[in-house]
Design brief:
158 residues, Purple Acid Phosphatase, chain A, domain 2, alpha/beta, five-stranded mixed beta sheet, globular
Length: 158
C-alpha cells in the first residue's frame, strides 16, 4: 500500500496536488493546517481514500484533532502535533500511539521533516507542503507483513 502524507499546506495546494498526480497513492493523509486544503484533494481525487486531522491554525474545525486509522495490516496514529508539544519532544506523542497499539505516529506542526523511530513506534513528520524554505511530503509503503518504509520527498522537482 502506498500512502502520501502532507502537512502544513497553509492554502498552497498546487504542489500537493502535483505530488498526488505523480505518486498515485492508494491512500492520502493530511495532518492539518489547513483543514480546508483537504477539500481540493477530495474534489481532485474522489476515488482515493483521504484521512485528515485539524491543526492549530484551523479555527472552523470539522476534522478530529487525532485519529487512529487502518493502513493495511498496521494502525497509524495521526495528529497535527501541537497538542503533544512536538516542538519540544515527541515522547507524549509516542506514548499516545503506543496506548492505541499503533506502529506509526504521523504528525506535522513543526514544518520540519522527521523520519525516525522512538522505541517500537515509527515517527513521521512530512514537513511542510505549503509554507517554508523547503517544501516536502512523505511517501509511506506499508507491506503485507506489517513492515513500514517511509521516505521524505522534496517538492521542488514536481
Amino acid at each position: 500500500m502506498k500512502v502520501a502524507v502532507f502537512s502544513d499546506t497553509h492554502m498552497n495546494t498546487a504542489k500537493m496536488l502535483e505530488a498526488v498526480r505523480k505518486e498515485r497513492p492508494d491512500v492520502m493523509i493530511h495532518l492539518g493546517d489547513l483543514e480546508r486544503d483537504t477539500e481540493c484533494l477530495r474534489q481532485e481525487f474522489p476515488s482515493i481514500p483521504l484521512y485528515n486531522v485539524c491543526g492549530n491554525c484551523d479555527f472552523s474545525r470539522t476534522a478530529p484533532e487525532k485519529a487512529v486509522i487502518p493502513l493495511g495490516p498496521v494502525k497509524a496514529f495521526i495528529t497535527h502535533g501541537h497538542l503533544y508539544n512536538v516542538d519540544w519532544n515527541t515522547d507524549s506523542l509516542v506514548y499516545a500511539a503506543m496506548e492505541e497499539g499503533c506502529s506509526i505516529a504521523m504528525f506535522g506542526h513543526t514544518h520540519q521533516a522527521v523520519n525516525g523511530e522512538l522505541g517500537s513506534v515509527k515517527l513521521l513528520n512530512p514537513g511542510t507542503a505549503g509554507k517554508g524554505l523547503k517544501l516536502t511530503y512523505a511517501m509511506v509503503d506499508i507491506f503485507e507483513n506489517g513492515g513500514i518504509a517511509c521516505e521524505i520527498r522534496d517538492m521542488q522537482n514536481l
